[in-house]
Amino acid sequence: MKIILATQNKGKIRELQELLGDADIEVLSLKDIEDWEDVEEDGITFADNAALKAKAAVKKTGLIALADDSGLEVDALAGSPGVYSARFAGEPKDDERNNDKLLQELKEVADSQRQARFRCALVIATPDGKEFLTEGTVEGQILTERRGRDGFGYDPLFFVPEYQRTMAELTLSEKNRLSHRAQAFRKAIPILQTLKGKS
């Protein structure tokens, strides 16, 4: 069975293929589609945006499609930056400016009130109109300064109590085991295997 993961991110494709193991499911990506036009992600939730991308990929290819959307939710900011995580400091997207803005917005917030989470929503859409949603979250808190060099986005500010390190200080294997996206992908595997059995 062939499926399409609505991304051009090689890391995501490799991660899903590894989780699928020998399930005899081939993962294609947007790089395999001619004339793909990016979908405007104007949903109000991560699940909305993931569904927009998954349904567009199904329409374009006729294959079962997966798409994810994820970001950072900070309790002291009423869940911001949320779906605007990548563009928190405006266009063009810039990790450093996003982190600077986050630190600025939280500068008066006590350490005990800096709880946050990374959240991922993953939608599986089928050619016959069915949709399945899986989610993953990682709980942590936002530090007052960056720590670590391995990672991107908000990783240097996101402290994981379980590991006593930031996401940017974790090894790749630790991060992949823990990550919100890996959790959502793992929950998607049995759904894909069931769909494969019906195809």
Q: Which key features would you list for this structure?
A:
nucleotide-binding; single chain; seven-stranded mixed β-sheet; Maf protein; alpha/beta; 32% helix; 199 residues
Order of helices and strands: EHEHEHEEEEHH
CATH class type: Alpha Beta
Major β-sheet strand ordering: 2-1-3-4-5-6-7
What percentage of amino acids are in beta strands?
15-25%
Find the count of extended strands (DSSP E, 2+ residues): 7
Could you explain the architecture of this structure?
One of its GO terms (biological process) is nucleotide metabolic process. The active site is at 69 (proton acceptor). Substrate binds at residues 7-12, 70, 152-155, 175, 180-181. One of its GO terms (cellular component) is cytosol. It comes from Desulfosporosinus meridiei (strain ATCC BAA-275 / DSM 13257 / KCTC 12902 / NCIMB 13706 / S10). The structure is a single chain. The chain has 199 residues and is α/β, with parallel strands linked by helices. It has a single domain, classed as Maf protein (Alpha-Beta Complex), CATH 3.90.950. Helices cover 32% and strands 24% of the residues. It has helices at residues 10-20, 46-61, 95-105, 172-178, 180-198, and strands spanning 2-5, 26-29, 64-74, 115-125, 131-142, 158-160, 165-166. A seven-stranded mixed beta sheet has the order 2-1-3-4-5-6-7. Helix 1 (10-20) crosses helix 5. The longest helix is centred in the C-terminal third of the chain and has 19 residues, at 180-198. It is globular, with a radius of gyration of 17 Å. The mean pLDDT is 93.
